[in-house]
């Protein structure tokens, strides 16, 4: 469904991505693990053009996009297929939960307001926020705000959702509610690419785990392969530190 090829990105003198390849099939839940600074977030951001890669391709079915030189039109097309969930939620603080979800449908998808509201309500219901349609972000807990972020992504009915450390800004007691929603939508067959430090999510929900270090994919496999028989020394060392 999505093939990422040879992604390179340098910030100043620091080469953050050194030719990353990744292949994702429909229905996959792929978790990217790796030490802080290994390029995981940058990779996600390059796929969705929040960051411009220096080199690389993304192939969505029969659509082949150059990650460095994509046109505005191509970026728009990619964003029809790819939704993004941010670490810090990225909600509009002056809009209600419902308006945060309808915004992308009305502006990005040119949907009429009534239809957008109907879809947004369904999405908020799905993440357990049917009683919070009219709440503003500052009236919601971090976990609830991130659930609005997830509702906004699923409302777009994308082919894939990219999650950039979706629970790392949350107080520990709020992490579970967000992971449970992610697990629920994964079980419904949503294709997901998730950067996270939540090892239990990687072990229980992912069907593939990718370990990155210093801008490259060091190793990938099933959760069982990666967590019980990692082949590479760097993967072994990382898991020793985090488990
Ligand atoms: P990870 O998600 O694995 O922690 P990141 O992709 O966030 O890694 O960061 C990789 C490296 O790139 C880090 O050293 C980070 O400081 C650097 N970096 C990320 N974004 C920028 C940016 N916009 N400008 C300069 N350096 C950046």
From TrEMBL:
It holds the Pfam family ABC_tran. It comes from the Bacteria. Gene3D superfamilies: P-loop containing nucleotide triphosphate hydrolases. It is a peripheral membrane protein. CDD domains: ABC_HisP_GlnQ. GO terms for cellular component: plasma membrane. It is found in: Cell membrane. One of its GO terms (molecular function) is ATP binding. InterPro entries: AAA+_ATPase, ABC_ATPase_HisP-typ, ABC_transporter-like_ATP-bd, ABC_transporter-like_CS, MetN_ABC_transporter-like, P-loop_NTPase. Keywords: ATP-binding, Cell membrane, Membrane, Nucleotide-binding, Transport. This is Amino acid ABC transporter ATP-binding protein.
